[in-house]
Amino acid sequence: MALLITDECINCDVCEPECPNAAISMGLEIYQIDPARCTECVGHFDEPQCVQVCPVACIPINPEHVESNDSLWSKYRRLQAEAATAASSTSA
Questions:
Q1: Domain for residue 11, yes or no?
Q2: pTM of the complete model
Q3: Whose CA is closest to 50, among 86, 85, 89, 22?
Q4: What confidence tens digit (pLDDT) does each residue in 1-39 have?
Q5: Nearest-10 Cα torsion for 70, 32, 59, 47
Q6: Residue 9's CB: how many other CB atoms inside 10 A?
Q7: Residue 7 lies in a domain
């Protein structure tokens, strides 16, 4: 399940640096979460870090991107493999 930032977002800037997958970025008006990169912090933390730091509780589960825990782990492994490949190609 990817998370979603609602229009209640106050652009406080605390969620973006907390995301271990770089899934959060500034959209046209508010922050947004890339569902292809959001693992709800599976593989990194027990709880989604953006939800933990959000002062207005505007980050629910995205109903359009419901995923099982297994698929979140698969996404985590894919993102880690991509990061490792990118790191090895820049150091070569």
A1: no
A2: 0.90
A3: 22
A4: 799 999 999 999 999 999 999 999 999 999 999 999 999
A5: 40
A6: 17
A7: no
- Whether 28 is in a domain gets the answer yes
Per residue in 34-92, pLDDT (tens digit) is 999 999 999 999 999 999 999 999 999 999 999 999 999 999 999 999 999 988 887 66
* E strand or H helix that includes residue 50: helix 49-53
Q: Domain range for residue 44?
A: 16-91
The β-bridge partners of 33 are 24
Positive or negative, the CA dihedral 58, 31, 22, 69 is positive
Say how many C-beta atoms besides its own lie within 10 A of residue 50's C-beta.
24
CATH number at residue 25: 3.30.70.20
Number of domains in the chain: 1
